[in-house]
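tool=predict chain=A
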Amino acid sequence: QVQLVESGGGLVQAGGSLRLSCAASGIIFSAKGMEWYRQAPGKQREWVAIINRGGSTNYVSSVKGRFTVTRDNAKNTVYLQMNSLKPEDTAVYYCKVFLDNYWGQGTQVTVSS
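tool=predict ok
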């Protein structure tokens, strides 16, 4: 049974930082690409970032230079370091297994102005 458990969300002021974690089980984590998505109130879910099994990364343009996705295969965990946060980053953040339909439950990030 595949499980993805996100954590690390919270309330932060604009300009602040948060680090999200996504702990995976039930998959061969090191063989999988991992993605982050987010969904703001009243908006469609948006792709944010990907890290492939080799560690290469890519980001949506709105977060480039501010967000960094990393992974620790020994801990079966993917991280999203978010710096210089803006109110428009407010959303529920989800992790997902690339090319599979496995999602976490989401973690709320709220950035106040």
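The mean pLDDT is 97. Strands lie at 3-7, 10-13, 18-25, 34-39, 46-51, 57-59, 67-72, 77-82, 91-97, 107-112.
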